[in-house]
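Predict the assembly for these two chains.
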Amino acid sequence: MMETATTPKVTITRRAPETVMRLSRLGSFHQSRLSFMRVLLRRLRQEGWRYERRQFDIDARGVGVAVYTMHGPDRAYSLVAFGHDLPPEARSDRVIATAWDATFTLFDGIPDAADIARLGAEIPLQEGGRVSARELSVSRANRSVRLFDHVVSALAAGHQPDADLVARVGYVMRTTAVYGSGKLGAADREAIAMRPEFLPPFQVEMLTVWLIRAFVLDLVEEMARQRAPDTATVIAPDLRRQIGIGNSTGLGMAPFLISHPILFNNWIMAREEALARVRAIDRSTPQTQARFHAILARARQALGLWRSDHPVQIARLADLRADLDRLATHMAATDLTQPYPWDGLWCWGARHLSEEGQEMLLSLLLEPHGDVVDGLACCMSAQESDGFVIDGAMTVGRLRAILDEVYGWAHDLDWQAPEAQARTWYVSAAKQEPRLGETLHEDLGDYAQPLAPGRDAMRLEAALQDLPADAPIAGFLLAHPEHRHSVRRAQIASRHPYAEIRDNTIGADLMPIDMLRAKLSFFGAGYFDPRSDRWVRINMYRGAPFPHELHDLPEDDWAYPATEASA
Amino acid sequence: MIALSLGEAEALLRKAARGAGRSWGMAEECGRTIRWLESYGLAAMALAADLLAQTDGVADTALAPGWSAKRGLIHRGAQPLCPIALGTALSDHAGAPGATGRIGPVFAPLLLLPHLASIAQRHGQAYTLTWGESRFVLTTGGALGAHDGPDLEQRQADWVAWGPSETDDAAAALRPHRAHCPASAYASLNQLAERTFAPETEARRLSGAGEAKLSTDAARPKTEG
């Protein structure tokens, strides 16, 4: 940027990786304009995607088939939904692994009768079935014990569901898995990644969930209608919109952030660049000032809907409420017409707010500035294979310097202490899913997954100790293939500053939910409600428009509920 | 034949290679290698299953070439080289563009192709890889070029040779984004992969995924998303 003699220039840089990439901070992230749900709905609206409910053959028990299609400028995508009727004992608090209330796939195009027949034989089986390259995702959902029957009964009787109960639960069905990217035989991401609509990450999965939500709300209304055709009513649009899709996310998601370092870097980089851009704005406008005040008020309101029974999250929510109160008080005394008003606000927040509060402030600061931050969404995908090839000519000295820079935090840990390596990531034979074991109490040595980059980097550093600094690492790798994965990660991290979590991912104090929340916040999920240290319940698309009303409502204005007082 | 997404094929090979005793970094190389070849419709999965069966439990270093300051990469072991160990060593040691070389014997030489393709891309120099009657061009775009491979599925070659190629045109290859695996190879790869999964014990079942302290509504989560 050019400096002039007359304008004092504030130099804003992106936050340092040592600050951002700590687990506790990653576990404090909130959804933002750059979240993938919001990116998707902005695109669908801007490009005029047309919604069509092509088929809806569902009976009074919720059994049948439905097809929801979104028609874009060049292509169409269809959610094929299968409704099932589980006996009550199969729909208890525990998932019976072979049965769900509804199963789904996102089909590439518009399915014909033969496609639907084929999918009807495979999709209800989930992991037990196989799909083809015409399918982009496979998913399933279960009914909320608390809300589903209540909503159907209320509507059948001709009245609205209890608004308090709706607010407390927030969803009538929750997904328990959304598989994309080639899982179960579905299309590989590479096969569709060049389509503009799938350029940002996880757009297939986000589109799937958005259409599932539409199906679920249609489902409860249809069941009520068939149960009592004479009295049944539908949910009032405002209340309907307050119903999202629930989701329970467990450990399976956590290793993703470690096994996709370039992708994760690009997510964080976009978010940090967005913050830096907003902080670098030298003058606010009356519009951006008004928008910030309105969004802050709405965010405080939304906080009232965020509940958790987990002690850690209860404390953090109390901090966050106090933070937003403090921010509101501060705003009353803050003149946003001063130069660099957003940077001033950010710097105040860094001094006065908790990590939850700071990261919320980041999200709020992006809200009025779609024109400067939304374009960053296109930089958030990654070709992970670009970082795969190792530069064997790199010298041992240069590699040591990288290890120092990226894994400096790991030097401060006593890796011999039991608490430093208290946990071991492994994959269970029973579920073939990532699990976390107690290193001391379980004999997991050979089963350990490579999900402790910091510990492994320290082992690499020790192995390099006696080598001459000018030696190329190719020779070292030939003799020590056990360090190959660590050398690859270090080289990736040297080019991608936010690629590595700069914290211990196997320590006694690890909270895996921090990793889950970081990822889920980028999806656009909210209302994080940890159920233990390793799984978290969330809500997706709460407040969002439904497909039939996408073009009738304001663009991208749903993430914080609007009320009459604050809108 | 079992049809797999390329992601599934890569993941299976990574796990199977780890199960056969490869280091994690080498297992990652195995996954990538097979993904690249299968994306060109080259039948790599059966070859890889065979390779892993033949080298099951052998240390990475015993399957890799040695290094001589004078002669570069050399074969020094008692058995044929692993093509993936050789390919990564070639890639790691890739010096100036245009080098020629010859080494052997090598298991499943087809599995060397992606590594030479990667070198070709980085060097901006097309290469040929030959063994027996087979000849492959790897282009500066890192793609498969002209090829004539009667010995495509050869399980072992006495030697492989590489050198600069004058032609640099990518083959009009169909990139099907699908992998295909014979059922027997699929079964043996899965057997190897299963070695990486910890057997379930009661303690693990209870603790591993973190049973909820509170269970009001949500069931235990399945997995991602």
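Residues 211-225 of chain B have pLDDT under 50 and may be disordered. The helical segments of chain B are 6-19, 24-39, 45-54, 60-63, 83-92, 113-123, 183-194, 202-207.
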